Amino acid sequence: MSPQRTPPRPSRGRPQARRRRPLLRRLLRLLALAVLGLVLLGVAAFAYLYASTDIPNPNKDFTAQTSFVYYADGSHEIGRFASQNRTSVPLSKVPQHVQDAVTAAEDRTFWTNQGIDPKGILRAAFSNARGNSTQGGSTITQQYVKVFYLSQERTLSRKIKEAFVSLKLQRQESKAEILQGYLNTIYFGRGAYGVQAAAQAYFGCDAADLTVKQGAVLAAVLNSPTALDPAGGKDARQRLLGRYSYVLHGMASDGNLGTARADRLARRLPRFAPVRSENRYAGQKGHLLTLVRKQLVAKGFTDQEIDGGGLKVTTTFTRNAMDADARAVREQKPKGLSALHVAVASVDPTNGALRGIYAGQDYLKSQIDWATAGGSPGSAFKPFALAAGLADGYSLQSTFQGDSPYVFPGGAKVVNEGPGGGHDYGAEIPLTLATEQSVNTAYVDMTESMSDGPVKILDTAARMGVPRNAPGLEPVAGISLGSATISPVDMASAYGTIADGGRHRPWYVIEKVTGPGGARRFTAAHQSTRALREDIDRDVSYALQRVVARGTGRNALALGRPAAGKTGTATNAAGDVSSSWFVGFTPQMSTAVMYVRGDGNDALNGYLPSYFGADYPTRTWTEAMRETLDDRPAEPFPPPAHVRATRRDHAPVPTATPTPTPTPTPTPTRTTTAAPSPTPTPTPSPTPTPSPSPTPTPTPTPTPTPTPTVRPSPRPSPSPSTRPSRSKPPRAGAVPSGG
User: What is the pLDDT of residue 628?
Assistant: First the structure.
């Protein structure tokens, strides 16, 4: 008998699967219908928007509404930006290579696209949604529509309207007509709208006479007319060269220029015509307007808005401070020294507002703004080191090596000012005396005694307002001697941190911007951060008050009110004095003064009657501050906190006496014109860049009887400290000095 089989169980899943399939099909059909509905709705919306969008009349204000710049009172005008400079020419007068360059730079599919770039529009939409309102994504047609028919408003609705107007314009005008309109309306910089005005502004010729290289340059600057203007200096020319190469190789890629020729032309820029400055930029106004323009661009305003958007820009500058700075320079600067440049910057420490500047020569003679270009401040940098040392556990009574020179283990030396090997102030001198008399050896000794001293000094300076990326600002043993390139504006701002109780408020120039209808476009956001503890700040301030009361800044006593500050001088690679400073403050104002010559690195010794910060810079500072603060009551400084030292390693370690070696130290000849001043010892330094970038720094201090000398003075070198050097010393043989 065969075994009985168990009958198979009925499947439980099959009926459910059969039930799921109809449901899934219904859902898919509903989804397909929904997608189709959305597509039809989108097509209907597109058709409606296209039909309802008319090409508007050309902008009535296309002749450009001039933008005006005002002093802080909002009523007195500083100046105005360029009105529209435009001369229309037919496309037949624009060489074909110029047309090819423009399309290669701005829209390589111009001759084949439908007037819009869908990918660019979507990219701009997503970017705008994330808050980046400056994202582009425009064809030549769209750019032309935006400028000629619409506005510079940065909204998604304007971008959508721009796209539909571009589509319609594409059907009504030929590509040649659109390109002609574009070339006659687009902004090229230097106040030039259209290719004809641009050819005149950059090359002094008509558009019809532009060469291939010149046409490629004009196409290149369209990307950013201000940042790529070759008159903007070495960095701007380098940026322009890169964009210029991109345009030429784009022409080659389009088949409009041979590759070999593109490579050859891309090696260098063509020669440019001199920039024609208008009389309304004469004096200091051109420098102010240029600085305001840079700040507007940094805040996202376009060149076209600035030059023709009808903006009202209210700045932080006051007529009183501007006049005071200019008058101080006129009264104190020696006459007949045409290559001498004086820069002054005054910052309100309570909010960071830049109240006044003197940028140097008349803007029509030189466009270099020395107030923002700067130089090496020398010992005017020492307050940042003092603040770092106090924060690291020292006090104003802590003592350091005051004798000269300070010798590093590798043989490099730092000397004090004075003839021969520099003045000796004692083996152990307090930081108060080291600051009053600007004793280099004591400050280098303090830097080496600190834990990671150079790094802490750099960080402190950056928190107080010195740009962290300032050229030459590096954590080296001689950082306190001020070899970095820092502008008077930044120095005034950083000293303003001390004046405001240790709170840093970044300097700024623009208070507010309104549009043609009065709509607020920008309002300054006043910011502040705690840079120094209040007790440390009070002690730094006290030390700088003693500099004025009994140290190198005694000429500032003529201000007749409580004041604090620091002198500084710097030397170039040849050992000549290249800059001279005084930076100081009261509770209401912080002002920096810098004297330089030629390209910012030429010798002041043998040229300026006295090149010490204690003389011309301090007297210029005093006059500028007297005029600026004339109508304000004198305010006292808070008393010193007398922070107690927590570190006890500050007394110099006894040193062994090595075999004496002669140290020739030439000292430039000086002629005194005021209170007795010291003779600094020049410091070899790296070869400077073409921009005003003086290098290592001396800090002269007044001595009872200055001793001019030119001869080398052999002097046995005192023993180097046995304390191991924790940071990179000056290169062997370098003798930084300051005053």
Answer: 94
3-state helix, strand, coil in the chain (%, to 5): 40, 10, 50
The rounded distance, in Å, linking the Cα atoms of 427 and 440 is 13
CA angle at 638 for the pair 632 and 644, rounded to the nearest 5°? 160
If we measure between CA atoms, which residue out of 549, 482, 477, 403 comes closest to residue 738?
482
Amino acid letter, residue 642: H
At residue 639, the pLDDT reads: 97
Distance, in Å, from the CA atom of 315 to the CA atom of 79, rounded to the nearest integer, reads: 11
Q: Which residue has the tokens 């019809």?
A: 208
Closest CA to 248 of 231, 228, 262, 229: 262
Q: Residue 70's closest CA among 514, 590, 638, 427?
A: 514
Question: Please, how many CA atoms are within 13 Å of residue 29, restricted to the half-sphere of its CB?
Answer: 6
Pairing between β-strand 577-585 and β-strand 564-571 as defined by DSSP bridges: antiparallel
Helix (H, G, I), strand (E, B), or coil: what is residue 664?
A: coil
Q: Are strands 85-86 and 192-193 parallel, antiparallel or unpaired?
A: parallel
Instruction: Name the more confident of 212 and 158.
Output: 212
Q: Minimal CA–CA distance to 588: which of 561, 613, 558? A: 561
CA distances from 634 to 355, 561, 585, 588 (A): 19, 6, 12, 9
Q: Which of 102, 289, 86, 74 lies closest to 187 in space, CA to CA?
A: 86
| Phi, psi (rounded to 5 degrees) for 476 | -115, 165
The angle, 0 to 180 degrees and rounded to 10, between the axes of the packed helices 195-203 and 212-221 is: 110
Q: Are 474 and 731 in contact (CB under 8 A)?
A: no
Q: Which two tokens stand for residue 458?
A: 């750099």
Q: How many CB atoms lie within 10 A of CB 16?
A: 9
Please compute the mean of the pLDDT values over residues 604-625 and round it to a whole number: 95
CB 692 within 8 A of CB 373: yes
- Phi, psi at 593, each rounded to 5°: -125, 135
SS3 annotation, 8-56: CCCCCHHHHHHHHHHHHHHHHHHHHHHHHHHHHHHHHHHHHHHHHCCCC
Neighbours of 68 (CB within 10 A): 15
**Measuring CA to CA, which residue among 340, 344, 352, 341 is closest to residue 325?**
344
pTM over 0.85: no
* 341 bridge partner residues: 596
In the predicted model, what is the mean pLDDT of residues 522-537?
A: 96
Are the C-beta atoms of 158 and 147 separated by less than 8 Å? no
pLDDT at 729: 58
Letter for the amino acid at 666? P
CA 34, CA 31: separation in Å to the nearest integer?
5
At 166 the three-state DSSP class reads: helix
Query: Tell me, what's the pLDDT at 689?
Result: 35
Q: How far apart are the first and last CA of the chain?
A: 122
Phi, psi of 169 (to 5 degrees): -60, -35
Q: Is residue 393 very low, low, confident or very high in pLDDT (cuts 50, 70, 90)?
A: very high
Q: Give CA–CA dist 94/20, Å, rounded.
A: 70
Res 171: pLDDT: 75
CA distances 314 to 247, 508, 545, Å, are: 38, 12, 35
- How far is CA 119 from its chain centroid? 35
The angle at the Cα of 32, spanning 26 to 37, to the nearest 5 degrees, equals 125
Say how many residues make up the chain: 739
> Residue 198: is its pLDDT beyond 50?
yes
Handedness of CA 584, 481, 737, 358 (dihedral sign): negative
